[in-house]
Recover the amino acids of this structure.
């Protein structure tokens, strides 16, 4: 029986595109738009696992791509990249109305969390959140799933975990979660699999 509902954020609750980031940064950067995110990827991993603060990420990132704008503009280019995935937001609201325990498990950073939790009320429905920058590890590492079980005090066999990346779903399943892949381009397919697993059709 499913008692706990654990959601990823990126391309599940919120759709996003780092193409927006690179387009914004390119107007004031030495690197061309197509090279910006590749150059910043190692720093992005560091900020998502908590090895870099937002301020240090901005400072190092600006230097790496030759960015001539302000740190605030650099950080803003990473923040304003999300759109709400309405079908999942509706499901979350229905689960919340039915008093189902809801949790978040996401590879993300403080600069993103501070942005989307203020902007999108869907996050008010969640009881607790496991963020990679606080946990100090990233999906699909087994450590973050073990941390989630311990921190939330849940039985993974009684928890459904939803993520858009098959590698993360496989890692969750290996740690005992009932895990489902989500593709926002085919919500109906997901909803059928979700209802079959959980018995929830609200």
């Amino acid at each position: 029986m499913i008692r706990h509902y654990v959601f990823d954020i990126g391309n599940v609750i919120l759709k996003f595109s780092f193409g927006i980031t690179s387009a914004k940064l390119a107007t004031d950067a030495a690197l061309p738009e197509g090279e910006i995110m590749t150059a910043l990827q190692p720093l992005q991993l560091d900020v998502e696992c908590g090895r870099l603060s937002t301020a240090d990420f901005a400072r190092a990132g600006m230097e790496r791509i030759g960015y001539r704008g302000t740190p605030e503009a650099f950080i803003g280019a990473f923040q304003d990249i999300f759109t709400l995935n309405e079908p999942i937001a509706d499901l979350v609201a229905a689960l919340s109305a039915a008093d189902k325990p809801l949790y978040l498990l996401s590879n993300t950073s403080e600069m993103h969390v501070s942005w989307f939790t203020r902007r999108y009320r869907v996050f008010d429905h969640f009881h607790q959140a496991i963020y990679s920058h606080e946990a100090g590890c990233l999906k699909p590492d087994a450590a973050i799933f073990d941390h989630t079980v311990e921190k939330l005090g849940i039985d993974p066999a009684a928890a459904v975990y939803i993520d858009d990346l098959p590698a993360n779903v496989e890692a969750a399943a290996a740690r005992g979660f009932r895990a489902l892949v989500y593709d926002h381009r085919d919500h109906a397919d997901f909803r059928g699999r979700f209802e079959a697993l959980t018995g929830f059709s609200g």
